[in-house]
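go over my protein:
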Amino acid sequence: MRRHSDNSNFGAVMRDRNASLIGIIEGMRTFSAFLPIPVFSLYAFRYTNSGILAGIALGIYGIAMIFSQIFMGTLSDTIGRKNVSIISSILFSIGNLISWHPMDIQILIFSRFLAGLGAISSPLMALLNERASPERRTAYMAFVGTFSGIGIVIGVIAGPELSNSLGINAIFLISTVLGLVSILPIWLLCEGDPVINRHLRMRGDLPFTFSSFVSSFLLFAIFFFLPIYWSSGTRVISYGSFIILSLIPAGLIGIFISIRAGMRVRIATVTLILFAISAVSMFYFSGFLYSVMIGFFVFAIAYTIFEISFIPLLIRDQSGDYGSIIGFFNGGRYAGEFAGSLAMGTLFVNSRIFHGMHALLLVIMLMIAFSILLLNVRYSKYGNVFNIHN
């Protein structure tokens, strides 16, 4: 009976116009946002010799997103999801257009900040959530999360390859075009009365918001470190080939685990434990190439699960203000982007050396442990997070 119900929900999602369009929009946005990430630290060092400034340039997008995800999500509760999403797409495109040919590191930082103001996930996910029936809500969220995860995987794979063939600058032009193209499916979305709530009210979920912070802290620390690490010596395969060979099977494994686990709360704990394993493998044993490769593979599995499962888990027990709740969650994610980029940039010494990696690893492990604790406390009223069955 449960399998039949899951198949029925999945079929309903596939036939839903809004779900399909939002999935396409989210996939386009995550693809275009993650295209430059695997090579961005190399790009930033064209304009500065400072690891801190390079880290700020990579992570400032996250600082802008902290405010825009929360504000845009909350604003969409007032003026409508589609209106906010269109404004966000325009801001994202303008920022990437400036990043295409910045004159110096300050302009690159500004352009990344401007692109980050184009938050789109909060209003779109809120629109999807409020139009879905309660029994199918988590299925809808997981469906769109899958598109988002696929966009990330393809973007991270395509970034190094496109940078080799077209140049890193061209990646930002591609992102500009995709941001503008996404306005069409946004316009085609079905939305009810655009004035949903005339009073701005902000609500968040601390355990999930902190878990999103931790995941993005690790993500951007890894992608600041990895291209520099890979270019600092002779490797068995090229950087682009390594990304492809890692992310495709890891992404498929992550999708499989997410589907099999469903909306069981313990999937959140498992994901965070995988993050911890990947951090140890990459940063504690960074002197061993194969350890770094294995660690990245494990991280890719965990991040795929995170993208698919965490927002459905977040909104499952909520009854309103979805834009604000998802906005705080995504705000934590983008705060983590800035903090992870800045932390790794601070440790950068020159083209071959990072100092203080063990100290950084200790901080990461403490954050992961605290995140697991918060999730345990959150779900204590339902039962032990390791044993709960949903």
Summary: DSSP finds 16 helices and no strands in the chain. Residues 137-166 form the longest helix (30 residues). Residues 382-390 have pLDDT under 50 and may be disordered. Residues 25 and 182 are 6 Å apart (CA to CA).
